[in-house]
């Protein structure tokens, strides 16, 4: 996926991915369903500095979630397509798989919040699936955990919670 590009519907915002993703989620939670107007969302997890914005400036918008917290969604200022999300960690971007130039390149590593999955979506037997969430330390490959640890170190250095 390194070097893959994507962007919004109108072309104002374009980005390039500087590496492979840390991990790829397919989220079936009600928040994602509501925010996307679809049955689920594909999120590719990347360090923020590995998502290079080529053109445009995605606008951050805090969107309320059912648990009372906010999720920051970065949208194109023109067409309003959501290209990235942030869940309280500015060091980590959740790139919306549907905004890739080749969305089929993003195959989920895990399905999460399947308790709210729409019944007509069938999950593949060879991909882990969880009713809610999971422990990344038991599921992610070693290289992804190293990248997570680097993010945690950066957060600690900045005094982030």
- CATH class, named Alpha Beta
Structural class: alpha+beta
The chain-level mean pLDDT equals: 95
Number of helices: 3
Query: Largest beta sheet, briefly?
Result: 7 strands, mixed
Overall 3D form:
globular
According to CATH, the fold-level topology is glutathione-dependent formaldehyde- activating enzyme (gfa)
Q: List unreliable stretches of 5+ residues.
A: none
Key terms for this structure?
glutathione-dependent formaldehyde- activating enzyme (gfa); 30% strand; seven-stranded mixed β-sheet; 161 residues; single chain; alpha+beta; three-stranded antiparallel β-sheet; 17% helix; 10 strands; globular
Which helices and strands appear, and what pairs or packs with what?
Layout: E1 5-7, E2 14-17, E3 23-27, H1 30-36, E4 41-47, E5 51-55, E6 59-64, E7 70-75, E8 82-86, E9 92-96, E10 110-112, H2 136-139, H3 142-158
Parallel strand pairs: 3-10
Antiparallel strand pairs: 1-2, 2-5, 3-4, 4-9, 6-7, 7-8, 8-9
Overview of the molecule:
The protein is α+β, with helices and mostly antiparallel strands and 161 residues long. The chain has a single domain (5-158), classed as glutathione-dependent formaldehyde- activating enzyme (gfa), CATH 3.90.1590.10. The chain is built from three helices and ten strands, in the order E-E-E-H-E-E-E-E-E-E-E-H-H. The protein has helices spanning 30-36, 136-139, 142-158, and strands spanning 5-7, 14-17, 23-27, 41-47, 51-55, 59-64, 70-75, 82-86, 92-96, 110-112. Strand 7 and strand 8 (82-86) form a beta hairpin. The two termini are 30 Å apart.
């Amino acid at each position: 996926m390194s070097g893959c590009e994507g962007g919004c519907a109108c072309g104002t915002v374009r980005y390039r991915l500087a590496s492979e993703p840390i991990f790829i989620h397919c989220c079936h939670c009600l928040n994602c369903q509501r925010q996307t107007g679809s049955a689920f969302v594909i999120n590719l997890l990347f360090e923020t500095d590995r998502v290079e914005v080529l053109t445009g400036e995605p606008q951050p918008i805090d969107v309320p979630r059912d648990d009372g917290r906010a999720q920051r969604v970065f949208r194109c200022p023109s067409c309003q397509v959501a290209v990235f999300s942030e869940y309280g960690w500015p060091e980590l971007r959740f790139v919306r798989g549907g905004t890739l130039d080749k969305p089929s390149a993003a195959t989920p590593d895990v399905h999460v919040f399947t308790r709210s999955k729409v019944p007509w979506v069938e999950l593949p037997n060879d991909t882990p699936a969880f009713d809610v969430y999971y422990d990344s330390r038991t599921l992610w490959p070693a290289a992804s955990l190293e990248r997570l640890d680097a993010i945690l170190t950066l957060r600690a250095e900045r005094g982030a919670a």
